[in-house]
C-alpha cells in the first residue's frame, strides 16, 4: 500500500474522532443553554451540523471504497469535491467560534456555567480547526498527486484512491525518469562519437 492510502485511512479516522468530540461538546453546550433559557449560539448549530455531515460521510466513503469498486462516491473527483466542502464547513465553524469567544479568551467569569460554556467553546474551536487543517492538507496532497498523474497520461480522476494509489507509489508509471517510456522498450542511447585529437 502506498503512503497516501495509509495516510487517507489515518486522517479519516482522526477526523471522525474529532467530529465525534465536537458533536458531543456542542451538544452539551446546546443542552446547557437550552436548560438555562439562554439564546443558542450560532456556532453550536453549525458545529453539530458539520459534525453530523462528517460522521455520516467519512465512514461511508471508507466502507463503500472497501466493499465496492467503481461506485461514484469512490471517485477521486467526488472525494476532492466533498472533502473541500467539508473543510470549508470546518473552517467556518472554527472561525465562527473564534469570533464569538474572542473577547473571552481567559474564561474568567463569575458563574460556573459561563466558565463551562466558554471552555467547551474553546474545545469546539480547537477541534474544528484541527479537522480543517487535516482535511485541507489531505485534499491538497491528493489534488497535487492527481494532477501529476494526469500530466503523465494516467486518467485517474474517475478512479478510486484505493485502485489508483493504493498499491504503488504515486507517479512511478515509468521506469525511466523524465520519459514517457512504459518500460516495454529500452531507452534509445545517443551514439558515441569518436574523439578526435586537435
Q: Quick gist of this model?
A:
The protein is an all-alpha fold and 198 residues long. It contains 5 helices and no strands. The termini are far apart.
The structural domain count equals 1
Assembly state (oligomeric): single chain
Give the overall shape.
elongated
- Gyration radius over CA: 24 Å
Strand share of the residues?
A: under 5%
Helix content: 55-70%
Number of helices: 5
Helix/strand/pairing category? mainly alpha
Task: Quote the average pLDDT.
Answer: 81
Secondary-structure element order, as H and E? HHHHH
**How many strands appear in the DSSP assignment?**
0
Question: Could you explain how this protein is built, in words?
Answer:
This protein is mainly alpha-helical. The chain has one domain (3-163). Helices cover 66% and strands 0% of the residues. It has 5 helices and no strands. It has helices spanning 3-35, 42-67, 76-101, 112-151, 161-165. Helix 2 (42-67) packs antiparallel against helix 3 and helix 3 (76-101) runs antiparallel to helix 4. It is elongated. It starts with a helix and ends in a 33-residue tail after the last helix. Residues 167-179 have low confidence and may be disordered.
What is the topology?
Blueprint: H1 3-35, H2 42-67, H3 76-101, H4 112-151, H5 161-165
Helix pairs in contact: 1-2, 1-4, 2-3, 3-4
Comma- or semicolon-separated keywords:
single chain, 0% strand, mainly alpha, 198 residues
Amino acid at each position: 500500500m502506498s503512503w497516501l492510502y495509509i495516510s487517507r485511512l489515518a486522517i479519516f479516522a482522526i477526523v471522525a474522532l474529532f467530529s465525534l468530540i465536537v458533536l458531543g461538546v456542542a451538544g452539551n453546550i446546546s443542552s446547557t443553554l437550552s436548560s438555562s433559557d439562554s439564546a443558542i449560539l450560532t456556532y453550536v448549530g453549525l458545529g453539530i451540523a458539520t459534525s453530523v455531515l462528517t460522521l455520516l460521510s467519512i465512514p461511508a466513503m471508507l466502507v463503500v471504497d472497501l466493499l465496492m469498486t467503481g461506485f461514484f462516491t469512490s471517485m477521486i473527483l467526488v472525494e476532492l469535491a466533498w472533502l473541500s466542502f467539508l473543510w470549508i464547513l470546518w473552517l467556518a465553524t472554527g472561525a465562527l467560534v473564534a469570533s464569538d469567544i474572542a473577547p473571552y479568551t481567559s474564561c474568567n467569569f463569575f458563574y460556573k456555567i459561563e466558565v463551562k460554556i466558554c471552555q467547551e467553546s474553546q474545545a469546539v474551536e480547537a477541534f474544528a480547526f484541527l479537522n480543517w487543517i487535516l482535511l485541507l492538507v489531505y485534499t491538497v496532497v491528493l489534488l497535487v498527486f492527481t494532477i501529476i498523474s494526469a500530466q503523465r497520461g494516467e486518467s485517474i480522476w474517475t478512479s478510486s484512491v484505493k485502485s489508483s494509489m493504493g498499491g504503488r507509489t504515486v507517479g512511478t508509471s515509468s521506469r525511466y525518469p523524465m520519459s514517457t517510456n512504459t518500460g516495454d522498450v529500452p531507452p534509445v542511447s545517443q551514439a558515441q562519437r569518436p574523439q578526435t585529437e586537435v
